[in-house]
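Q: My labmate handed me this sequence with no annotations at all. I'd like to see what the chain might look like in three dimensions before we decide whether it's worth expressing. Could you predict it?
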Amino acid sequence: MDKRKCRVNLVGIGMGSKGTLTGEVRQIIEESDVLIGATRMLEGFRNEKKNCYAEYFPEKIKEILDKQKENTRCTVLFSG
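A: Here is what I predict for the chain of 80 residues:
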C-alpha cells in the first residue's frame, strides 16, 4: 500500500443536497482543501473556495491524490 502524504476522507453525500448532509460529513467537507467527485456532486461546493476535481475513475483520483502536498486534506465524494 502506498504511503499517502495527504489525508484522504471518503464520504457519502446522500442525494447531494447540502441540506441532507450529516453534521459529520458537513464538517469534513468544510475542513477539506480538496474535493474530488463527479461533476454533479461538486456543484454545491464549488463556491466554497476549494480545489475541486471532477473525476470518478479510480486511476484518475489516485493521480490527483498523488500530486497533493503533505498535510493536504482531501475528500472524495460519493453518492449514497
